[in-house]
Amino acid sequence: MPKIGRYRIEYNSSSNQSWTAEIRCYNDADTTLVGCIRFYKQGVPIPADSSTGITLPILNYELSRFNDVVTLLRSEDYVDFGKGSYDSIGASVAGFALFTGGEFTGDLEVN
Question: For 4-92, where are the alpha helices, taking DSSP H only?
């Protein structure tokens, strides 16, 4: 997945959508949207993470995770996201996630 180079935070006081905040993520080279991260108030059903085609993941979190995600974006030199799978100490993990620390070349399979 492309590295997140820029992002735009929208934190709504009211909206016709069920999410309260959205972070739109763009690549490093230009203003191509590479994905969205949406945040929902506690008690609002959170939809499953999804992908609109191959290249545009949408990650969904409770609003309580907003500061954690913004901190990652601000403090890490390399952040990207997408759908991946890997083995973690006896457990298979598959799903959408934010990835930090550089482009992955190990046992992570990113779709």
Answer: 66-75
CA 28, CA 12: separation in Å to the nearest integer? 26
Whether residue 109 has pLDDT greater than 60: no
Asked if 55 and 48 count as a contact pair (C-beta separation under 8 A), the reply is no
What's the rounded mean pLDDT across residues 20-28? 91
- Selection from 104, 66, 65, 67 nearest residue 82 by Cα: 104
Contacts (Cβ under 8 Å, ≥6 apart) of 35: 1, 4, 25, 56, 57, 58, 59, 81, 82
Counted residue by residue, the chain has a size of 111
Predicted confidence (pLDDT) at residue 52 exceeds the cutoff of 70: no
Domain boundaries, the chain: 6-101
Which amino acid belongs to residue 10? E
pTM of the model: 0.80
